[in-house]
């Protein structure tokens, strides 16, 4: 089941489909201090909410990429002047050193082979370009392989191991400049889901998966890396 293509999660927390909405988007863009007209890529743009938000609040140019035709169709409908392409993150259909920044908001945990993704991100970034990551992570990593066995397509089944993540970034030509923990956003997300009448049953999260998530001590983080 692709939860992101259904209305269940959207109706509970909105089009952004991630903890914290655009709060960390603003935090990251403020940190990177992009210039007017700089080109950004939303890696796994989903419904196009971040593209729409940046169009409305910043003077940057932004493209989008996603593997879901359904989500791409919606993203294009609300961002008619932006290029949004159907593609995977390990095969980014842009030339070398095209972007000043790449944004991956709660999407890396949905991707296979993130080492290849990082190499592609490095390729399309200009020198000293920024790679912005927000995602779920696990403080206890010994349960990660068991979580991956669940069929539900959600970031919750594949929280990141931050030690491995930083190792992959370094090996792919990045320096980590900023790492922040925003675990309260996961708590708020659960509260929003419950408040809006969406249970874990609606989200197809069974008791075993809930127990593993509790044991893994899931958190949420912001990381910004720069291409060397």
UniProtKB/TrEMBL annotation:
Domain Methyltransferase: 36-148
Keywords annotated in UniProt: Methyltransferase, Transferase
Coiled coil: none
The keyword Transferase belongs to this UniProt entry's keyword annotation: yes
GO biological process, one term: methylation
Descriptive protein name: Class I SAM-dependent methyltransferase
Pfam families according to UniProt: Methyltransf_31 (PF13847)
InterPro entries from the UniProt entry: Methyltranfer_dom, SAM-dependent_MTases_sf
Pathway listed: Phospholipid metabolism; Lipid metabolism
Lineage of source species: Bacteria, Bacillati, Bacillota, Tissierellia, Sedimentibacter
GO molecular function: S-adenosylmethionine-dependent methyltransferase activity
Tagged with keyword Flavoprotein: no
Native source organism of the sequence: Sedimentibacter hydroxybenzoicus DSM 7310
């Amino acid at each position: 089941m692709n939860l992101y293509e259904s209305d269940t999660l959207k109706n509970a927390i909105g089009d952004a489909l991630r903890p914290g909405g655009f709060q960390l988007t603003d935090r990251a863009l403020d940190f990177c201090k992009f210039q007017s007209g700089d080109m950004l890529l939303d890696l796994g743009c989903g419904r196009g909410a971040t593209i729409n938000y940046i169009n409305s609040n910043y003077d940057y140019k932004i493209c989008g990429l996603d593997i879901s035709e359904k989500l791409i169709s919606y993203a294009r409908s609300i961002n008619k002047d932006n290029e949004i392409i159907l593609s995977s993150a390990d095969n980014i259909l842009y030339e070398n050193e095209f972007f000043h920044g790449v944004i991956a908001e709660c999407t890396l945990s949905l991707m296979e082979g993130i080492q290849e993704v990082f190499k592609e991100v490095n390729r399309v970034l200009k020198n000293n370009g920024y790679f912005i990551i927000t995602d779920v992570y696990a403080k206890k990593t010994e349960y990660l392989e068991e979580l991956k066995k669940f069929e539900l397509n959600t970031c919750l089944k594949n929280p990141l191991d931050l030690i491995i993540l930083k190792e992959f970034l370094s090996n792919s030509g990045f320096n980590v400049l900023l790492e922040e923990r925003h675990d309260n956003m996961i708590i708020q997300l659960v509260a929003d889901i419950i408040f809006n009448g969406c249970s874990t049953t609606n989200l197809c999260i069974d008791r075993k998966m809930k127990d593993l998530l509790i044991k893994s001590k899931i958190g949420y983080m912001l990381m910004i890396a720069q291409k060397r």
